[in-house]
Amino acid sequence: MSLVVKYEDKELELTKSTTVKRMLERMDIPPETVFVVVNGQVVTQDERVGPGNDVQIIKVISGG
Amino acid sequence: MRHHHLALCGDCFTTWMKNQTMRNIRRNNMFRQEDKVLVCVSGGKDSLALWFILESLGYQIEAMHIDLGIPDYSARSRDFVMQMAERLGREPIIVDIGLDLGITVEDAQKYSKRNPCSVCGIIKRHYMNSVAVERGCNVVATGHNLDDEASTLLMNTLSWNLDYLAHQSPVSPPHDGLVKKVRPFCFFGEREIGIFSFLNGIDWVREECPHVGGSSTMEYKYLLTRLEEDHPGIRRHFYAKFLQARHVFEKENETTLHPCDRCGMATSVGTCAFCRAVEQISEAKEKFG
To answer: Please, what is the average pLDDT of chain B?
Structure first.
């Protein structure tokens, strides 16, 4: 069982749990440009995510 | 929020955002309960959240949305504005420039050599002022956030654009027919506003304007967010310290403005930039369209 996290044209497959911080690092996403929602809740970078979770990465930076 | 050394639950974060907005409005003397404020709402998270918060704080608000006629993007943006209007039980002022002017921002790119982002800015500034005057609003509020302010400041500093530096402020005072403009969210990062919107069920247009591609604003924003990761609070510090020192860029004599010979809005020349742009794009559209 694994979790596939998608953000724009990026994709990461997680087979075991990791922190949000590490997940964003692996996807090369600057943490200040997004926030992460796990199972409907906004989470901090210390939160662990992995298979079985519903993960959304929401972009906040815009051209303005 | 590492830069504030603060960790809050959802409810406390919502209260904190509202309190900080009110504090910024009061501290910078932006407006009072008796003022009538025109909030410009694009359909993005910042302006929608601003409208939502200002209504919840009990200010006298009129909301305005400008439909710029950008295929698909403008229609989707307008939908989010109407969703919020329904939620708040308000009727926003909709300016559809295709109907009002016979041209759109798309036409600027299609038929003239003008940069669509520059035309968009000219059109927005014109309607912000003219609609405020028409509706008796003495203040115009926009959703500019800390990332907008810090990236603009960085751009203007790197090019030492002294005129722009002199005018960058949370409050632009009224001046010869120009209505006062304020930026109540200027100390909130985009991330804070995004989280506030999510927690309060505010949905916004997620896609970028199709004309934004390659804009230098985005480059500077990304640069600053990278710095922020290693130095929490650096954007806020950069902007706040600039505001303390901004007076050194101010000139003693502001340019005198007078009514445009066509539309009557304030300008420093005979015919304002808006009227000239509309005329040029309309002519180009007629010729090549």
So the answer is: 93
The nearest alpha carbon in chain B to A28 belongs to: B226
Structure tokens of B206? 């997620």
What tokens appear for B221 in the block?
């924003």
Q: Is the ipTM of this complex over 0.85?
A: yes
Partners of residue A5 on adjacent β-strands: A12
Is the CB of B198 less than 8 angstroms away from the CB of A42? yes
Token output for B217? 């604003």
Query: Residue B146 corresponds to which tokens in the numbers above?
Result: 């800390």
Question: Residues with Cβ < 8 Å from B286, sequence gap 6 or more?
Answer: none
Listed residue (A20, A17, A16) closest to A37, CA to CA: A20
The single-letter DSSP state of residue A15 is: S
B289 vs A: CB within 8 A: no
Report the C-alpha gap between B144 and B151 in whole angstroms: 11
Are residues B53 and B30 in contact, defined by beta-carbon separation less than 8 angstroms?
A: no
What are the residues whose beta carbons fall under 8 Å from the beta carbon of B216, sequence distance 6 or more? B155
pLDDT band at B213 (very low <50, low <70, confident <90, very high): low
Residues of A in contact with B147 (CB under 8 A): 61, 64
The helix (H) or strand (E) run that includes residue B280 is helix B273-288
CA distance B95 to B237: 37
Q: How far apart are CA B267 and CA B259, in angstroms?
A: 6
Q: Does the reported pTM lie above 0.80? A: yes
Nearest chain A Cα to B224, which residue?
A: A32
* Interface contact B208-A63, CB threshold 8 A: yes
Shortest CA distance to B179 belongs to which of B232, B119, B136, B235? B136
